[in-house]
Design goal:
CATH topology of the largest domain: Rossmann fold
Largest sheet: 7 strands, mixed
Structural class: alpha/beta
Radius of gyration: 21 Å
Order of helices and strands: EHEEHEHEEHEHEHEHHEHEHEHHE
Number of domains: 2
Number of helices: 12
CATH class of the largest domain: Alpha Beta
CATH architecture of the largest domain: 3-Layer(aba) Sandwich
Shape: elongated
Number of strands: 13
Distance between the termini: 19 Å
Length: 335
């Protein structure tokens, strides 16, 4: 298991956004002094996500096609986890006559951007299947004005359960924390239920769609004698990772997550693709589009490798012995 690889051979722009955020980015390429004098209004591109600000657009891309304050102007707006705001924020970006929209943090921001314009190029970073969700026509030929990167986090639930079972074989009952508002909630629950039965485990499903649901959900997990927990994929949980990691620690529940960021925040383990690589590839596509490429000609990028991250300090606190074999499988072991 090595870190996920998304696409290949393109110059990389490091584009980092907070999960589930809605924001706008105005950008133009640097030209000569004469060109700059005649081109006072920069081309703009916007980004749409769902959540609160947690990161920042980088000051520059690797090979210099993007320089904040020189050939990129960044203007951000945040939905603070409220889906109903996305359409209005997308409309604001359209009013700014942006050149590109980056939609990240789940399907809703992409839908909002796509609903706002059928002509402005849209680059997405999502975890689900964009073809199944009706966002693009196909992976190789997206068609229309939309392309991007998929993390494909949802099909990995069975593997996460398998890894958790290997670390905590004594857990006869496992819980699955899922956001019922997530478009994949039903299929995810069915899939992980099948995986649990395959290894002889009982599955307890607990729902959480708001922060207020977290405490009751973990109380339910504790009251039912759950020995381990799988946190479902999704932008909402990703944007609340510190709270989820804290609750898992408070209840002493071995937990596996989808992203490395949970483990660096103190979580036990994660298995999934690299969100950093996905955002970097989205930045590459933004650069290509600003240079004249069409979204319809840019295939949707998919991960080919995945990463297993284990936090040995957290495992020790939980009284778990991480086998040497499991440590050797990991891409990163945090001590």
């Amino acid at each position: 298991m090595r870190s996920s690889e998304l696409g290949g051979g393109h110059e990389a722009a490091r584009v980092h956004y907070a999960s589930r955020l809605c924001g706008g980015v105005a950008a133009r390429r640097a030209g000569t002094a004469a060109e700059d004098a005649s081109d006072r209004v920069p081309q703009e591109h916007g980004s749409i996500r769902f959540g609160a600000p947690r990161g920042r657009f980088p000051q520059r891309a690797q090979r210099g096609w993007l320089y904040r304050g020189q050939n990129v102007v960044i203007e951000s707006r945040f939905a603070d986890g409220q889906n109903y705001r996305l359409a209005g924020l997308a409309a604001e970006l359209i009013d700014r006559q942006v050149s590109v929209i980056v939609a990240s943090g789940g399907t809703p921001p992409v839908v909002a951007a796509k609903g706002a314009s059928t002509t402005i190029p849209i680059v997405f970073v999502i975890g689900s299947d964009p073809v199944k969700d009706g966002i693009v026509g196909s992976f190789n030929r997206p068609g229309g004005n939309v392309t991007g990167v998929t993390l494909f986090t949802y099909p990995l639930l069975a593997k996460r359960l398998e890894l958790l079972h290997e670390l905590v074989p004594s857990a006869k009952t496992v819980a699955f924390l899922v956001d019922p508002n997530n478009l994949n909630a039903k299929s995810d629950t069915i899939n992980i239920g099948s995986a649990a039965r395959a290894v002889g485990q009982k599955l307890v499903v607990v729902n959480a769609s708001t922060e207020r649901d977290f405490e009751p959900a973990f109380a339910t997990v504790a009251s039912q004698g759950v020995g381990a927990l799988v946190v479902g994929a999704g932008a909402f949980f990703n944007s609340r990772r510190e709270q989820l990691v804290t609750l898992a620690a408070q209840h002493s529940i071995p937990t596996i997550y989808e992203l490395r960021e949970f483990v660096t925040a103190g979580g036990l383990m994660s298995y999934g693709t690299s969100i950093t690589d996905a955002h970097r590839q989205a930045g590459v596509y933004v650069g290509k589009i600003l240079k004249g490429a069409k979204p319809a000609d840019l295939p949707v990028m998919q991960p080919t490798k995945f990463e297993l991250i284990i936090n040995l300090k957290t495992a020790k606190t939980l009284g778990l012995d991480v086998s040497l074999q499991l440590q050797q499988l990991a891409d990163e072991v945090i001590e």
